[in-house]
C-alpha cells in the first residue's frame, strides 16, 4: 500500500548526507527538499537577504545540520524559527558543546547531540505529522 503524501520537510544539511535522511523521511510519506546552506548559493541565503524562500514557505518541519558556531548559520536557524508556522517542528543535530553554548537559540527546538539515526528521523516525521494534524 502506498504512503499518503504528508507535508514537506526541509533538510538543511551540508554535503551528501541528506540522501540518508531523504530516504528515511520519504519512506514515512513526506516530501523532502534539501538546502545545502548558504555556501551552496555563493554564500547567500535568500531569507537573510530579505527575500522569500520557497523552501521554507512550503516546509512543515526542518531538519537542520549546519554549524551553529557560524554566525550566518545561527541567523538562518533564527529565521526558520520566525518563519515556520507555529508548532512546526525543527530538529537540530549539534556538534559537541553547542547545546550549552546556544541554549537560548535552541529553545523550543528538538536537539540531537549525535548523528541522527533512522529512529531519530522516524520520530521527527511523527512530530511533523502531529503538528500537521493539530494545525487549523
Give the termini distance in whole angstroms. 28 Å
Please report the first level of CATH classification, the CATH class: Alpha Beta
According to DSSP, the number of beta strands is 5
**Whole-angstrom Rg:** 14 Å
Global outline: globular
How many strands, which pairing sense, and closed or not: the largest β-sheet?
5 strands, parallel
Strand content: 15-25%
> Roughly what percent helix?
25-40%
Q: Count of helices?
A: 5
SSE string: EHEHEHEHEH
Mean pLDDT: 85
Spatial order of the strands in the main sheet? 2-1-3-4-5
Q: Per CATH, which architecture? A: 3-Layer(aba) Sandwich
Structural class: alpha/beta
**The CATH topology:** Rossmann fold
Number of domains: 1
CATH superfamily: Response regulator
Which segments are poorly predicted (pLDDT under 50) over 5 or more consecutive residues? none
